[in-house]
Amino acid sequence: MNSAYHRRVAFPSELGNSTTRQLLDQTPALIIPLGATEQHGPHLPLDTDTRIATAVSSAVAGLLPGDWLIAPAIGYGASGEHEGFPGTVSIGTAALRELLVEFGRSACNWASRLVFVNGHGGNLDAVAEATTLLRVEGRDAAWSPCSVAGADAHAGHTETSVLLHISPNDVRIDERVPGNAAPLAELMPRLRHGGVAAVSPVGVLGDPTTASAAEGARIFTEMVETCARRIAAWTPNNRGMLE
Ligand SMILES: [Zn+2]
């Protein structure tokens, strides 16, 4: 047998760029970035949440002990609240939950455990229900948010700063406008009924005009360190979330 046949893949690495034979006799753990394709104001790309989840996942994998593979991102989610804007593609909570359950059942045939790193708040119900079911079925699945304390809700200071840090060329810096900065709890009744468009015609909840790359670097580091700590501790709560 070719000695390269059992050559170990260099971890952390990417699932999409690996071969089956690199994974033989291995039981890697898997990180799956989970994002969305939805309007993010006039200034941020539609795949903002996917980019953040992917960048956080890559950075986290580099901090964790053991063998971690990063899966290709799941770039569609439950974005019904952003349906009023062209470019948004939402598969909804039920379809996303099914996708995540079947993903987990299949991947756990060879992975030792898996964690969905979620970059979009609208995915919360689906990822919590899916990981809870996978755990009931005996699979070691969990999820972690990319959130930080004090973040604004959507396409505001927080996300715009992080994008200025990780994807500066894709932020339409001159097109930033302040959105509705009222607390999410206050907006929720109108938001539930009419989506983001009903409370912010530009699709921004927060203020992107205060964003900066330096702030983005600080926020991103906090996201990565918090997420890495959750994954290293591996204590899923009763919703499958790592605490
Ligand atoms: Zn977002």
From TrEMBL:
Q: Which cofactor does it need?
A: Zn(2+)
- Sorted alphabetically, which keywords does the UniProt record give? Hydrolase, Metal-binding, Zinc
Look up the domain of life of the source: Bacteria
Q: What Pfam families has UniProt attached to this entry?
A: Creatininase
**What family does this belong to?**
Belongs to the creatininase superfamily.
PANTHER family reported in the protein's UniProt record: 2-AMINO-5-FORMYLAMINO-6-RIBOSYLAMINOPYRIMIDIN-4(3H)-ONE 5'-MONOPHOSPHATE DEFORMYLASE, 3-DEHYDRO-SCYLLO-INOSOSE HYDROLASE
Q: State what protein this is by name.
A: Mycofactocin biosynthesis peptidyl-dipeptidase MftE
